[in-house]
Specification:
Distance between the termini: 41 Å
Shape: globular
Number of strands: 16
Structural class: alpha/beta
Strand content: 5-15%
Number of helices: 23
Length: about 625
């Protein structure tokens, strides 16, 4: 058993304290709603007979009798399964596995609903990408619909990738009284090394290899069922769910279809029954996700060089639990939390190499030992994050194999991939907040060499990524230093797509000796690479942000070291300028289903506040007493 540090890092303690104080009113209101929704017996016991009959009409005999009796806990299963996407295809047979394990554990289970799951890897550079971020809140709403029947005493969430896991958690938190266990699917085995994949992509951008060679490289990288092996948003999601206590210990990165993965799935089902009220260990998800859990998630993200998408997702998740998290909180934590991993794109290793080096059990151990994580938190496995320093081991064989947990490693087995907090790759978490007269932005520095982190150069302005790629193909970006400003890519403009397709071209320019950076109100996500990228610029261009007034040739500074995002103009000169360019009009923002999401664009919040269309309830006031929020 690991011994947690007796002293929390002072920055972690201070940030946690200020989040708690800032959130006091909204958190209290949220917990009051959780308490009001908690029942002393099975939730379906409050349903009228006609309602209940509808709820079990399709169930087979034993389950129907169990639901009638009201004596056994009923577990909802919500899944993002589809058989096209590699990360979600492994969930095909999981609901039946869960149902059988839940019945053996003394409970009942029903498949409550499915949620959509799209892949940013497929939609890169396509119109469908403009639905990606909005899909998170749609998934949250779909989760709420699935749980809305009041038939359930606990829930199990099956999801992996970019917007899916945050959406599932936001939806689950709207039913904060329900114990909720997240069930991962695991990463695919290692394929073509990520560094080689990146090399071929850059050669293709330069025109040195053709589409056939590129497709062969991509297919060798993304080659089987499971999550993509680089450390993007999907694997960052999984890391955060474990460190927040929503996975079983060391459940996160076992490969799909392996005996250990299957045993962990059954163990998760058993645990879902145990943490219901009738199971004797009631563990509402609204209590698991508290201020300390949110800070733990931030620390894990920073210590592993995780996805910049979580500068929005964590803010939105926190808000769903009545907690106010800000970019300044993340920035302050990043300055104090050391970088402990080198996983692509901030290294050459993939997630399987991370596991082999000691994985999550060692990561949690060293962060606890040095006071960066809070140990005194509630998890679905019990109280204490120290539980997640243990390694999962298969116990037995076949369909009845179980899981045992053994003490995890206390030293990294490969210090080129994973290190202890006493010997980090870098003293900070590699995520910075930029501020200046162009607004606020996020920059991921963990994959950027120090000599490339400060760029002052003339602006070249583009209103969409296609314009930039055309300029690159025509050679108009050659032989010059530049800061590419790619604007009208924010949530209110077109749903804030990821702009990964720009990175190979920017990398080519940088490798030629040009000083380059990008400034955008769009996203780069977990694949943010070796070029300095000021992303999520707020306020965005479509809402009149200053980047809408930038012109070609303006001298811009992107300083990831000092946290500056500036333009060499006086305030008066910048303010008197008219905005240029344009956001997509509604008539243009159509096709590929985009017109169905026009209402989201009209109400979406800023990137800094989570880019959400969901508005958290305010704290109670004299005008709106607590009873009105329950």
């Amino acid at each position: 058993m690991s011994t947690p540090s007796s002293r929390t890092n002072p920055v972690v303690a201070e940030v946690t304290d200020r989040i708690t104080r800032r959130s006091a009113g909204t958190r209290a209101a949220y917990l009051a709603r959780v308490a009001a929704a908690t029942s002393t017996g099975p939730a379906r016991g409050r349903l009228a007979c006609a309602n209940l009959a509808h709820g079990f009409a399709a169930a087979d005999g034993p389950v129907k009798e169990g639901l009638k009796s009201g004596r056994k806990p009923n577990v909802a299963i919500v899944s993002s399964y589809n058989d096209m996407l590699s990360a979600h295809q492994p969930f095909r047979d999981v609901p039946e596995v869960l149902k059988k394990a839940i019945i053996r554990a003394g409970g009942l289970a029903q498949f409550a609903g499915g949620v959509p799951a799209m892949c940013d890897g497929i939609t890169q550079g396509r119109a469908g990408m403009e639905l990606s971020l909005f899909s998170r809140d749609l998934i949250a709403m779909s989760t709420a619909v699935a749980l809305s029947h009041d038939m359930f005493d606990a829930a199990m969430m099956l999801g992996v990738c970019d917007k899916i896991v945050p959406g599932l958690l936001i939806g689950a938190l709207s039913f904060g009284h329900l114990p909720t266990v997240f069930v991962p699917a695991g990463p695919m085995p290692a394929g073509l090394p990520n560094g080689e994949k990146a090399r071929v992509r850059q050669l293709y951008a330069e025109g040195k290899v053709g589409r056939e060679e590129l497709l062969e490289a991509e297919a060798a990288s993304y080659h089987s069922a499971g999550t993509c092996t680089f450390y993007g948003t999907a694997n960052s999601n999984q890391m955060l769910m474990e460190v927040m206590g929503l996975h079983l210990p060391d459940a996160t990165f076992a490969n799909p279809a392996s005996p250990l993965r299957e045993a962990l799935t059954r163990a998760a089902a058993e645990r879902a029954v145990a943490i219901t009220a009738s199971g004797g260990e009631p563990t509402p998800v609204g209590h698991v996700v508290d201020e300390k859990a949110i800070v733990n998630a931030c620390v894990a993200l920073l210590a592993t060089g995780g996805s910049t998408n979580h500068t929005m997702h964590l803010v939105a998740i926190a808000a769903a639990a009545g907690i106010t998290l800000t970019w300044d909180d993340l920035s302050d934590l990043s300055a104090a939390v050391p970088l402990l991993t080198r996983i692509y794109p901030n290294g050459s290793a993939d997630i399987n190499h991370f596991v082999a080096a000691g994985g999550t059990p060692f990561l949690v151990h060293t962060l606890l030992k040095h006071g960066y994580l809070h140990d005194d938190v509630l998890t679905v496995s019990g109280r204490g994050l120290w539980r997640h320093t243990s390694e999962a081991r298969l116990d037995g064989a076949g369909d009845t194999a179980g899981v045992t947990w053994e003490e995890g490693p206390k030293a990294s087995l490969d210090t080129a991939v994973l290190r202890g907090a006493e010997d980090p790759f870098a003293p900070d978490g590699g995520l910075r907040m930029l501020s200046g007269r162009l607004g606020r932005a996020v920059v991921k520095t963990s994959a950027v060499r120090p000599e490339h982190r400060v760029v002052t150069a003339p602006a070249m302005v583009f209103d969409d990524q296609a314009e930039f790629l055309a300029a690159f193909a025509e050679g108009r970006l050659d032989g010059r230093d530049l800061v590419a400003v790619v604007r009208y890519q924010g949530p209110a403009a077109n749903g804030m797509p990821e702009l990964h397709k720009l990175m190979p071209a920017l990398g080519v320019l940088q490798d030629r000796g040009q000083r380059v950076a990008i400034v955008t109100d769009g996203r780069m996500s977990g694949a943010s690479g070796k070029v300095t990228a000021a992303i999520h610029v707020t306020p965005e261009a479509a809402l009149g942000g200053p980047i809408a007034r930038v012109r070609d040739g303006d001298l811009l500074t992107v300083d990831a070291d000092a946290g500056l995002l500036e333009v060499a103009l006086s305030d008066a000169d910048l303010d008197r300028r008219e905005t240029t360019g344009r956001a997509p009009h509604d008539v243009e923002w159509a096709g590929t289903g985009r017109e169905l999401f026009s209402g989201f664009r009209a109400i979406v919040g800023t990137a800094e506040t989570g880019a959400s269309v969901i508005r958290p309830l305010p704290a109670p006031s004299e005008e709106a007493p607590l009873a009105q929020h329950v």
